[in-house]
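Task card 7
Instruction: Convert sequence to structure tokens.
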Amino acid sequence: MKIKNLIPFIIVSLYSCNKSELSISPSLEKKLGESAYNSTNENSTDYKVKTFIDSNIQKTANDALKDALITNNADYGCVVIMETKSGKVKAMANLNKDLDGNYKYNATTAVCQANEPGGLIRTYDLMALLEDKKADTSSVFDTHGGEISFFGQKIRDSHAMNGKVSLATAFSISSNSVFAQAINNSYASNPNLFCSRYKKLGLDKPLNLPFTNEATPNFPDPKSKQWSAITLPWLSIGYGFTVTPIQILTFYNAIANNGIMVKPLFLSEIKDKKGNLKTYATEVLNSKIASAKTVSSLGYLLTKKANGAGSTILTSNNITIAGNATAVPLEYADPSTKDKKYLASFAGYFPADKPKYSVVCFIYNPKSQVPIFGVMVCGNAIKTIAEKVK
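Output:
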């Protein structure tokens, strides 16, 4: 039996843990140990396993997520908190509303469910444009009133816009129309340049985490039958492909970590009865996702966005948060659908000036407000976590 098939049972145990490390049953320790040491023993006490989960941070994440789910009358959600430099996962909360309306443990949504990321992808768009020198933050675009058409398919902003704006302003106000223009104008003649950069980050394939059924993301290839003339502009606003919450976290964490992308790290160590110790260390996936100048620009704009006039919910007197939020309509392909469902999300890090932790929050089908905005749904949970986890 492999470690990959066992971690979901570890996460189930988190909520009864009252130590700094996670308590794991003797039988589970035996299975994990056998995998780690490639051996079979009859004694269930032969191995001692530790993860990097911190019970205090886990409780904070769990409580903040639960409050957000209740407040927004949502179906389910997840929060993951990761140590920026090391990739050590300090908390992973996954909660689902049961038939009685109570929120309880829900497997591993953060790892095992891939979704269209919507506006969270604009941070990648901006990185690609800056790195490929297709535009800079001062480049000016016409908003076209907040609506633009590609081959008869309209891309709209969540609110009406007028006049021309800089790319930096478009990022701050979450303009789909501007980013669709910027990406299509820059890469339509060579979409592989845009796509290959994304794939080099490894976001098109699983992270090979120690979980059963880790979701396989999907990202189209310009040479495949999936590709059409409208694929690129829709990719630019986060549609037509899927990615898991923890993969989004891994990307945003790399920005917080000065461009160094590290793999999320769950297991700390496994010790056998002879005292042999198998440890798990930080793994660098990409030592430089972009130039220092680009990473710095992204950090500045993520901090500005999280603390802008339209996002005061994330403003705290105790800590500065950086990040991006969005809400994705799940039935956008059918405009006639009534009672639309949304996926609200946030990805970012804190403190903004000297990042210590990165955090991602996904909340499915919130029903507390119309229209749905990601920062309104996830914001209080993120601020609570940032203020308590130091």
